[in-house]
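Hey,
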Amino acid sequence: MIKKVFMLGVLFSLAGFINGAMALSSSEKSAPEKFMAGKDYDVLPTPVPTRNKDKVEVVELFWYGCGHCYTFDQIFKPWAAKQGSDVDVIQMPAIWNKTMELHARTFYTAKALNKLNAIHGSLFNAIIVKRERLFSTDALANFFEQYGVDKKAFENTMTSFGVDSQVALAQSRGRSYKMRGTPEMVVNGKYRLSVEKAKSQPRMLEIASFLIDKERKKLPKPLPAK
């Protein structure tokens, strides 16, 4: 009789443990995420291929003539610098009119001439803060001369095949991202973030970090060392 009571006690304890574990698992699955699709960010209807499947890609979409992009740049740069080696951060100019295309060409020209680090922030400051009319090739060539770039070299690079190709790619990807404004971000070709949904620029970076962690779990596991 004692043996039967003992066995029943063990069975009840085991059943309680299993039920508790199942309840915990169920509660974990049903726990709401910190940020919600459709409310805090948008899920793209068709994922856009990333340039490196072994990393989580983060694209910042901006325009030099956008004041909100200028303020976002101040917090985006330090945030980007803190990202791990498994995060691929890309700055991409948004393009939907001729002026934005000109500024996109300027961005890729600076990149090709290894002047982007020196010019990026200064160009933002010149257009947004100083209100300089840098909306023509000639005006931009004069701006680049301040950084030791020959005017002819600037013009040749701006109309080069390499810059043409990068501008065309930016236009194509921008359409695929379903851009609605600037600044915006796209995480891993799947999620589009905007200030409109995020409610603030700092919160947009919080959401980006959340989505990076979400996508990081899906990255291919490195092969074990031999």
